[in-house]
Every structure is written in C-alpha cells, then in structure tokens.
Design the sequence.
C-alpha cells in the first residue's frame, strides 16, 4: 500500500509570492491534516480536512488556507510569503476525521528568501 | 491552551545504553497519546496509548501512560545507532471533542546514539 505522498519535496520562493503544496493520502484514508514544523516551534497543527470540508483549524493567519478534493487529495496554499514561513510542511492522513493514528508524508521543505 | 512538554530536549548515549524519554501534557478532553520517530523524513508511528498503566511494547521500545499524573515515558533498551532520531510525543484532544479534536505535538527529543 503506497504511503502518503507530498509534492513538491523542495521549494524556494521569495517574500510576497504565494505557494501551493499538494498531498495525496493513503488509499482509503479520507482525512488529511497539515502541520508546519520549524526548529523553534516544533510541529504545529494547521488544519484538517475531511470530505472536502475543513473540520478543524490551528492558530495560523488567514494567509494559510487549504482545500480537499473529492478523491481526498489536499492542497495547502500560503499567500504573501514571509521569511518566517520557511519550514517543513507535513501532511498526515487517517481513515476518518479526528482519528488518533495519523500517517505522515515526507514533507515539503519550503525556503522563503 | 493545550501543551505537551518533552524532556530532555536532546540526549547523547553509547550503543547498548538504555534511555528513557519523557512527555508531560495538559490537554483538554484527552483522548490518546502517541509517540512518533522522525529521522530525516516523515515521522513514523510507534505507539498509541489510551489507558493508564498498560505498557505497549515493540521490540526494544516500550511506552507507558499515567493519566493521573499526565505523563508518558518511552523506553529504548540496548540502543543502536539506528535509533538516532527525533522522538515526538503527540496528544489527541480538544475542546468539545469531535470536530475540535486535534493532535498537539511536543518539540521532540533528539536522541543521538554513538557507536
């Protein structure tokens, strides 16, 4: 069974630009959660999607948004990039919404210059 | 605000040593505690704990939860260089449960096992 996949794996952007990251969950998993990981803050929850609806949201500004498609694939968008947005963005999938065991993808390393 | 604190933040040991990693938490409507191992890639799931006092084991790794004192430990015996990684503790919970449920992660413990 294929694991969670994320694209692209690495991305370099400049301040003010926007970026879209993609996540494909494990087959049969319908929930996708997104996290931001930085050395200072650790792993922080961004949001969770299930059945194309955002079910929960962390404490991030509105520049961070996402969506989920009917095939459970999810995208995350960050607009007006700031230097502090440089991080590893991880997505995780689980069978149902708010299910405890989440399986992570390899992440997208975003660098903002 | 939900909080998960791991200690120590980093640890250096020699192969064969036994290590204990700690995780304490303050989370609304606690549901479960999870341990993940992260090398230079995606965090991989190790254990999920929901009941106090029941040890989960997988090879040289074991973990136990104390819901009264709000903490968990992860033990690794006979450490190997391949155990070098960041170990993450996450707690599932949230106000009102249901759609407000989320995982709150600690900052991790960086374990380095030297040959």
Sequence:
């Amino acid at each position: 069974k294929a694991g969670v996949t994320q694209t692209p794996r690495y991305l370099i952007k400049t301040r003010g630009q926007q970026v879209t990251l993609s996540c494909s969950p494990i087959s049969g998993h319908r929930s996708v959660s997104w996290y931001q990981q930085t050395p200072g803050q650790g792993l922080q929850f961004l949001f969770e999607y299930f059945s194309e609806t955002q079910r929960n949201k962390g404490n991030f500004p509105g520049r961070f948004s996402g969506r989920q498609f009917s095939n459970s694939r999810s995208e995350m968008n960050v607009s007006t990039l700031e230097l502090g947005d440089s991080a590893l963005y991880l997505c995780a999938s689980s069978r149902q919404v708010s299910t405890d065991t989440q399986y992570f993808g390899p992440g997208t390393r975003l660098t903002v210059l | 605000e939900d909080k998960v604190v791991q200690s120590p933040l980093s640890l250096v040991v020699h192969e064969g040593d036994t290590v204990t990693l700690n995780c304490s938490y303050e989370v609304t409507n606690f549901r479960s505690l999870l341990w993940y191992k992260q090398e230079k890639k995606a965090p991989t799931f190790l254990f999920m704990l929901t009941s106090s006092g029941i040890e989960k084991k997988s090879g040289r790794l074991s973990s136990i939860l104390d819901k009264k004192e709000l903490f968990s430990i992860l033990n690794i015996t006979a450490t190997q260089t391949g155990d070098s990684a960041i170990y993450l503790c996450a707690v599932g919970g949230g106000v009102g449960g249901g759609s407000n449920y989320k995982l709150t992660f600690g900052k991790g413990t960086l374990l380095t096992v030297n040959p």
About this structure: The interface with chain B takes residues 3-4, 33, 35, 41-45, 48, 55-56, 58, 90, 97-98, 100-107 of chain A (CB under 8 Å). The CA atoms of residues 55 and 71 of chain A lie 17 Å apart. Chain A has a mean pLDDT of 93.
